[in-house]
Amino acid sequence: MAPVPSTVMKKNVRIDGPTKKRAKKKENFGSYIFRILKQVHPSLGISQKSMAFFNSLAADMLDKIATEGARLCKQTNKSTLSSADIDSAIKLVYPGELSKHAVGEAKKALSRYNLHTKSNSSGRAKPVAASSRSELNQGKESHAEEATPL
């Protein structure tokens, strides 16, 4: 029988020494929120309180959609969450016009991602070229004309 070492590591916690809990990584969407702010209003900044609010809003939205998508997968006995499941989850979680815009933006982002991963052999998405951005924004301009004011 092999001798057992005096300190055994199990999930980064010492068994015979002082135990330390690992801190969970919190989701942080700050860099993405800041990028979007700079795209919309290049001259504006954002305070830490506002960033914390938007970060918690984004994390809550992600959690709601993921939970609803997982529930849909469980009901249909599927083990993989597909984009159709996410579309359905968005439609269930958010009301009317908001869900339509969210699904439209999600489909646009997915098609942009698929376009660039097919052209790149490593499977990583490349940044969108200016010509591709203008092609994608042409559909956005025609969609803006159809929008009704609140």
Automatic annotation (TrEMBL):
GO terms for cellular component: nucleosome; nucleus. Residues 114-123 have a biased composition (Polar residues). Residues 138-150 have a biased composition (Basic and acidic residues). GO terms for molecular function: DNA binding; protein heterodimerization activity; structural constituent of chromatin. Residues 114-150 are annotated as: Disordered. Pfam families: Histone. Residues 18-92 form the Core Histone H2A/H2B/H3 domain. Signal peptide: none annotated. It comes from the Eukaryota. PANTHER family: HISTONE H2B. Belongs to the histone H2B family. This is Histone domain-containing protein. It comes from Steinernema glaseri.
